[in-house]
Amino acid sequence: MCGITGFTGMHPAAPVLLNGLSRLEYRGYDSAGIAVLNGNAIHIEKVSGRIAKLYEKTEGGKTVPGTIGIGHTRWATHGAPTDFNAHPHLSNDGRFAVVHNGIIENYLALREELIAEDYIFHSETDTEVIVHLLEKYYTGDIKAAVMKTASRLEGSYALGILCTDAPDTLFAVREASPLILGIGVGEQYFSSDVTALISLTKNVIYLEDGEIACLTPDHVTVYDCTGKEITKPISRVTWNVEAAEKGGYEHFMLKEIMEQPAAVKAALTSRIQGEKIRLDDFELPAEILRSFHKIIITACGSAYYAGCSGRYAIEKLCHLPVEVELASELRYADPLVDTHTLVLVISQSGETADSIAALKECRARGATIIGIVNVVGSTIANLADYTLYTRAGPEIAVATTKGFTTQLAVLYLIALSFAEKLRSISPEVYSSLLWELKQVPKYIQQSIDMNYQLPTLSRRYSSRSLFFIGRNTDYAVALEGALKMKEISYLHAESYAAGELKHGTIALIENGQPVIAVCCNEALADKTLSNVVEVKARGAKVLALAFHGNSRIISQADDVIFIPRISTIFSPILAVVPLQLLAYYAAKAHNCDIDKPKNLAKSVTVE
Ligand code: F6R
């Protein structure tokens, strides 16, 4: 989704802005632009398409002189991805330029009002109303005009504002869209994302809703929504620059797949102390856990599929009913949630609009909320009663991999720690599962190492639409495997609960149909194996995924991928890894833009 960046300092702004925009690329965009203030004129350059075009057009920023500016990557919502609709937008009097991430819900009414007052619009965007409102309300006090403008806006916005009357001051405003200030020496920055700041500074301020910041090269001042100056803590980012770079890999996705042993270890290690699990800053005592009648897990996309896997672990170990709900459905479902409901909201970015809305809906009904989030200081992390960070480090590829497996790791920790407190499993079972959980990083590495034949297999199994089948925990893995395949290789891939095939979809099986059968749930592997036999009898070619040593599968499937043996509840965290690689190599064989698949955005900040 859109990303914004800003710079004020003593040296040319445009190269810094272009570099910042490149680091925001992964969020997804279809046009980009920068505005730089030079003397008393704002120079704007924008292009539809890739940032490389903007580099070329501005000769790496050389043709846009000036030491203060703002930049934007746009993911089209209101109006096509054209040069006209690209940000920044300029006021009619040329005094203000604005970049915006979010959606202005009342823009049509504002647009009509402004047109009636003779403001001329040059784009179809919702954003353009903002720059005209700034012009309308400006009477010599920029901060007052910004506050008055913000008070007229409904929806979500992170704004970066330039004004010719403040030649070294940037203005930034946040309401329900991420915005982070970077604190430098003799220069200051803002961005939608920490990854665009870490090569510049590790000292950041997370703005909160309603806050306004004024940045000059030497100083940052933050005001609350009433205009009162407030003191904000400066946080230190622990990620290093290398974490947000490819480090020799051809794609971020491959790098992030390979980082999974380390990322999962980071999610687990400090929370396991000897024989005890310590969930960071919060411990819910047994009496409180007993007061919950059910758990709802809510999320979108892959995070939802992580929830589907986590549900089996929590139900099995804690004997508590767990519902897994798509956040986009839950928010409008008038859900049966009360003070006896514990809600787990899972989100890599912490900024997914539907997940935030579902969280607020459940909160309003009295639920206790735990956020399982990767991005520190993100909206979901701030809104939740308790937050468990997944500690995956920056995830740049649009398709999540380490984000997903670290979410699973945290869900397993929750399941085990709650089960221990509720005494729903014996101390022996607890110890043995905890021991296994500690082995997961090593086993993930083995799942990668064992499957060197995946590039070849991916060519054999990605020639047409694919079926992914499995039961129970394996079905949850099949769902994620199919999503990975379709989003990066653009092949049609569907997942089915294996037992459902006979109820309709087996009609689609014909000669040569690729079927990926996940058979890691030992109690149900034989059942899935019968489904394998059924689809093979109708001409399908089957690639099975099973525990190492499962010889029965070899005789039935055409090809087999193995993973190390582990307790069924933990099997998804290993089984998904070869499926990520299968999708990666299929996308590579089809020459797809793996890190930035078409039409997708990393952070889905609009509904
Ligand atoms: C798929 C993928 C998406 C995200 C979904 C939720 O690979 O990345 O399906 O899982 O958009 O995003 P977060 O986790 O940021 O809430």
Please tell me about this protein's structure.
It is built from 19 helices and 27 strands. The strands form five sheets. An eight-stranded antiparallel β-sheet has the order 3-2-4-1-10-9-11-15, covered by helices on one side. The protein is α/β, with parallel strands linked by helices and 607 residues long. The protein folds into three domains: 3-243, Aminohydrolase, N-terminal nucleophile (Ntn) domain (Glutamine Phosphoribosylpyrophosphate, subunit 1, domain 1); 246-444, 3-Layer(aba) Sandwich (Rossmann fold), CATH 3.40.50; 454-589, 3-Layer(aba) Sandwich (Rossmann fold), CATH 3.40.50. The protein starts with a strand and ends in an 18-residue tail after the last helix. The structure holds fructose -6-phosphate. Fructose -6-phosphate binds at residues 300-303, 347-349, 352, 355, 399-400, 483, 487, 603-604.
Topology (elements, then pairings):
Layout (H helix, E strand, L loop, with lengths): L2 E6 L4 H12 L6 E8 L2 E8 L2 H7 L10 E7 L14 E2 L5 E9 L2 H10 L11 H10 L4 H11 L2 E9 L6 E6 L4 E4 L4 E4 L11 E4 L5 E5 L2 E5 L5 E2 L4 E2 L15 H7 L1 H9 L3 E2 L2 E2 L8 H6 L2 E6 L1 H18 L3 E5 H4 L10 E7 L5 H12 L3 E6 L5 H5 L2 E4 L12 H21 L4 H23 L4 H8 L4 E5 L2 H17 L3 E5 L16 E6 L5 H13 L3 E7 L3 H6 L2 E5 L7 H19 L18
The structure holds fructose -6-phosphate (F6R).
